[in-house]
Amino acid sequence: MNKGTSPDGSGGPLRDNTPDHTPEERERAVEPRVSLVTLGVNDLGRSVAFYRDILGLEHLFTVPGRPVAFFDSGGVRLYLAVPEDEAYRSRPVIYYAVDDLEAAYARTIGRGAPSLSAPTMVHRDADGELWIAFVSDPDGTPVGLSEQRAASPV
After folding, report:
1. Under 8 Å between Cβ of 135 and 116
2. pLDDT band at 33 (very low <50, low <70, confident <90, very high)
3. Residue 5: which pLDDT band, with cuts at 50, 70 and 90?
4. Helix and strand tally (H, E) in the chain?
5. Phi, psi (5° rounding) for residue 14?
6. How many domains is the chain partitioned into structurally?
7. Residue 144's closest CA among 58, 62, 73?
8. pLDDT of residue 1
9. Among the listed ranges 19-28, 68-77, 84-93, which one has the minimum average pLDDT value?
10. What CATH number did the domain enclosing 105 receive?
11. Residue 144 sits in which domain range?
């Protein structure tokens, strides 16, 4: 089954390796887990302070002589970098799981993060409710806070 054209610029087709294989037999190109997320920033010092002091992420290290810092977020590394090339500038929206959304949102705002959106339920089904809120980092990138709650009576 053709799923589009190859991203390598060759114009060749992408091949779907799923039609003839069970889920256990499918060949994976990569392991299905995220290890690192890069976030392009303008001011590394301000961003380190935000992710360390406001969000409370563990600052692993800053690379000496380079505008690069690494944090741990539950086993996934967050790589902050001032991009040397605009092709590497990114603005992903990263959601951080919290146990008490209202309390985490209040703490984050109380520590100086600008609010973008107060806690709001965005989805409800038989399994529960998904609640999210947003604050802004120093570059204006939205930062999501999310909480999965047990289903409540309607």
Report:
1. yes
2. confident
3. low
4. 2, 10
5. -80, 140
6. 1
7. 73
8. 41
9. 19-28
10. 3.10.180.10
11. 33-149
